């Protein structure tokens, strides 16, 4: 499917390459800069590093930070810090004083979500009174990225480039005037500058909060193994995270980064769609995308009319509106500012967010019949780590060549950190049965409504799930566990049998592990990923096609 889109673009891309510099500046044209210059490299003979020069001064390391245990309050990522250093306009309809970057679904920079959003009004990610965090499991997403080749922003730029070539070209004025000389400046797939910062900051924050758990590795005499996938942005994501956590250049010597191959047909828990064929089937794994596009067809009529009144030679469709909203997000995330953002009203941004809510709820959340199966790999690996049981069953995306080998799948770490894609994070939340995310039930696909499921809070850039394992004095049993998504502690009393409502989101470690083992049992990878069925939109599948 992607291949077809790409092939379709080839003639256009190929012809763009041979154009001269002036012609490249056509509206909608695509250009790329290349740094560093070819043939250059850093000269470490002329510019020796720290070891080469010597004289490092005093190097006392101090005690590892342990803010999750020691801080008087928790450091949330709110307000403008979440998008620093990006410049984000106010919406078109005046100064509403809203942060539009929080309405961009999976293209939002991550921001702290209050636990009260999910009903826990009186807790924070800090270790609760009488508890200490003894182990932490992190699952996180890459930061801001360029769009997929051939996706909506690319299509829009191609449409504008075509429009310049037709008789009379096109003419834009008023709010759309900038389009007269707009060119497409984005790359494809790679981590952007702000994305790099998001992952670096996440690593630094993680060290600040959980640094003391590294002492466990010191006692064992081993280095941590952190995992990611082979795509360039995923590798860079893990490296930036490690650089933030361990420092530059120390990260190169202080952590083993395991890169799992992501390509069609290869088992990889971080990229299960490569082996789960139904993930890409329109009537099964991507019913959400179809429903979201249908929603967009009705949601932007007023906006289309307004913008169409300021351009001739181009007919604006709902597809173009989504593309322009995405350009607002992608250009801001990659270039630091986008002229597209101030074209849209507060309501447009609310509809844009809801478009993503629908898409993700039905593609990778409870409304999908293939979500839990895709999350089953990470789920099984969590259970293996929780129970220190080697050899998790490879009846899903697990690669037993890796997971049966303690070098690549160690079971005695106090800190785990795996990087993956937002779809897989959400698939995994579905597999983990984190039902607080879906508590308001299936999302209506015809009109926007309030719901517990907000894509920008669940799958933004650098989204991260932290699972804390704790030892508590005042609970029985003393070993407890809780789940924290973008700083919101999630209630799990509805998720796992044997868990009662707890103000800090705690539950007995053993009860949760037992329920997760039951989840592993009940998720049918073979049928959900390879069965012949037709999914129904608007249903709570609990992420599974085959149930009961
Ligand atoms: C938690 O706070 C919200 C408002 O933030 C309120 O609507 C809700 O009733 C509170 N819940 C509890 C259990 O106090
Ligand atoms: C641009 O025009 C070419 C030639 O007519 C067409 O094949 C292509 O689909 C158009 N591209 C877009 C994005 O509309
Ligand atoms: C297991 O992973 C390795 C490295 O990522 C890869 O080369 C191999 O093909 C995978 N095995 C299977 C069965 O997919
Ligand atoms: C929006 O416009 C489309 C296409 O013109 C039309 O089919 C639809 O009924 C309109 N929706 C609303 C809510 O006005
Ligand atoms: C826009 O739509 C009108 C009415 O359908 C049509 O006549 C016109 O050719 C279209 N213009 C372009 C540039 O596609
Ligand atoms: C790869 O996944 C398939 C399907 O789950 C499984 O049957 C096979 O054993 C796995 N291979 C390895 C090497 O893990
Ligand atoms: C932890 O696992 C690693 C990898 O298998 C191993 O090298 C190390 O000895 C183990 N440490 C302990 C204390 O078991
Ligand atoms: C390190 O942490 C692991 C996982 O929590 C635990 O099994 C192990 O006993 C700890 N080792 C030491 C020396 O504290
Ligand atoms: C998963 O959550 C649902 C909804 O709260 C609950 O009915 C079900 O029992 C849970 N499943 C397991 C295995 O605990
Ligand atoms: C899938 O099921 C449909 C409806 O029963 C049937 O028409 C179709 O041939 C089946 N496809 C395959 C590949 O078995």
From TrEMBL:
A GO term, aspect molecular function: acid phosphatase activity
Domain of life: Eukaryota
Family matches, as Pfam families: His_Phos_2
Signal peptide bounds: 1-16
Keywords: Hydrolase, Signal
Keyword Hydrolase carried by entry: yes
Keyword Repeat annotated: no
Protein name in the entry: Acid phosphatase
């Amino acid at each position: 499917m992607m291949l077809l889109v790409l092939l379709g673009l080839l003639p256009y891309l190929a012809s763009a390459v041979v154009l001269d510099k002036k012609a490249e500046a056509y509206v909608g044209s695509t250009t790329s800069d290349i740094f560093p210059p070819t043939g250059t490299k850093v000269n470490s003979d002329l510019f020796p590093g720290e070891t080469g020069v010597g004289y490092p001064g005093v190097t006392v390391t101090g005690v590892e930070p342990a803010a999750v245990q020691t801080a008087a309050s928790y450091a949330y990522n709110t307000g403008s810090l979440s998008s620093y250093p990006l410049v984000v306009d106010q919406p078109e309809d005046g100064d509403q004083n809203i942060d539009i970057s929080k309405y961009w679904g999976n293209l939002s920079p991550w921001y702290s979500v209050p636990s009260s959003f999910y009903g826990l009004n009186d807790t924070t990610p800090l270790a609760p009174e009488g508890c200490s965090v003894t182990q932490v499991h992190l699952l996180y997403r890459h930061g801001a990225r360029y769009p997929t080749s051939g996706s909506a922003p690319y299509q829009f730029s191609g449409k504008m480039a075509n429009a310049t070539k037709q008789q009379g070209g096109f003419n834009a004025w008023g709010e759309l005037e900038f389009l007269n000389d707009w060119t497409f400046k984005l790359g494809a797939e790679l981590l952007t500058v702000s994305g790099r910062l998001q992952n670096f900051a996440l690593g630094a924050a993680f060290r600040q909060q959980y640094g003391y758990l590294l002492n466990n590795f010191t006692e064992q005499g081993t280095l941590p193994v952190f995992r990611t996938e082979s795509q360039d942005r995923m590798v860079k994501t893990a490296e930036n995270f490690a650089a933030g956590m361990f420092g530059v250049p120390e990260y190169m010597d202080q952590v083993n980064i395991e890169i799992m191959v992501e390509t069609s047909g290869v088992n990889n828990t971080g990229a299960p769609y490569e082996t789960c064929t139904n993930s890409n089937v329109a009537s099964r794994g991507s019913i959400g995308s179809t429903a979201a596009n249908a929603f967009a067809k009705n949601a932007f009529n007023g906006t289309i009319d307004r913008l169409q009144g300021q351009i001739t030679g181009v007919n604006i469709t709902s597809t173009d509106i989504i593309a322009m909203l995405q350009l607002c997000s992608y250009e801001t995330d990659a270039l630091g500012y986008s002229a597209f953002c101030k074209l849209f009203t507060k309501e447009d941004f609310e509809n844009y967010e809801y478009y993503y809510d629908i898409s993700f709820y039905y593609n990778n959340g409870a409304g999908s019949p293939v979500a839990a199966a895709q999350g089953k790999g990470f789920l099984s690996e969590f259970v293996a780590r929780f129970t220190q049981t080697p050899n998790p069953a490879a009846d899903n995306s697990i690669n037993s060549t890796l997971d049966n080998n303690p070098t690549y799948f160690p079971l005695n770490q106090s800190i785990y950190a795996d990087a993956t894609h937002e779809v897989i994070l959400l698939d995994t939340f579905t597999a983990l049965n984190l039902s607080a995310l879906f508590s308001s039930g299936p999302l209506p696909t015809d009109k926007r409504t309030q719901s517990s499921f907000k894509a920008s809070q669940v799958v933004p850039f650098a989204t991260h799930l932290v699972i804390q394992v704790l030892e508590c004095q005042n609970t029985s049993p003393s070993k407890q566990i809780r789940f924290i998504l973008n700083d919101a502690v999630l209630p799990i009393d509805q998720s796992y049998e044997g868990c009662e409502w707890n103000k800090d989101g705690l539950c007995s470690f053993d009860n949760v592990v037992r329920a997760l083992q039951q989840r592993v049992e009940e998720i049918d990878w073979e049928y959900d990923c390879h069965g012949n069925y037709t999914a129904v939109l608007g249903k709570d599948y609990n992420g599974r096609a085959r149930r009961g």
